[in-house]
Amino acid sequence: MRYLLLFLILTIVVLGCSDKKKYHDVDKQGKVDTQPRGIAEILRFQKETNAKFKDPETSPLPDRYRKDFEGLNFFEPDTNYRVVAKLERTPDAVPFMMPTTTDRKSAEVVYGLAHFSLNGQHFRLEIYRSPELDSDVEDYLFLPFLDATNGNSTYGGGRYIDLSVPRGDSLIIDFNKAYNPYCVYNPKYSCPIVPRVNTLDTKIRAGMKAFQKEE
Q1: What are the CA-CA distances from residue 9 to residues 140, 170, 185 (Å)?
Q2: Which of 33, 62, 189, 201 could serve as 183's disulfide partner, Cβ 3.0–4.6 Å?
Q3: Cβ–Cβ contacts within 10 Å for residue 183, how many?
Q4: Which pLDDT tens digit goes with each residue over 95-124?
Q5: Which residue(s) pair with 32 in the sheet?
Q6: What is the DSSP code (8-state) at residue 65?
Q7: DSSP string of 160-214, one letter each residue
Q8: pTM of this prediction exceeds 0.70
Q9: What is the Cα–Cα distance from 53 to 92, expressed in whole angstroms?
């Protein structure tokens, strides 16, 4: 979620292919891990995300929510939502200013188009890259998307996925790693508004669910 740190207002920093094979790995303690690697990776993402939200140094949650925080709500891991997309790069794309949840606008460029199949349908999503990123994250790609679960089981404004520039023309998109914009939790964050062109006409039952605020 490093991308969202670029949009913290207070600092003004600009800031499917289903893996059904079973793997049996032995860990350092000699225990056998019978979880598929894809599932284990998703569970690790969830665990690391919960740890960030619990830590006051990295959490977007205000104190009143974090003090009783036990964990975020996720869909059950499903490797059917881990797809291999064909990446069509767009080197001639012109930078534009993406609206955010505040008056600020984010400079972005369409790095490429991701073509993939999911739930029996073919889709195309725009993948973005900011020309203002620091050199240590210059390989970062941003994928915001909307889907048919928004406003029900997931946040109405859509979700984000963090990606990295691939070496070839294939790009793995794991919707199990979809997360909510930080402005969902705290209004001090300025988050990009998902472009309507990145709307998926299907239900993505993977990744982070809507945040339930408990007063």
Answers
A1: 20, 35, 14
A2: 189
A3: 22
A4: 999 999 999 999 999 999 999 999 999 999
A5: 26
A6: H
A7: EEEEE--SSSEEEEEGGG-B--GGGT-TTB--BPPPGGGB-SS----SB------
A8: yes
A9: 38
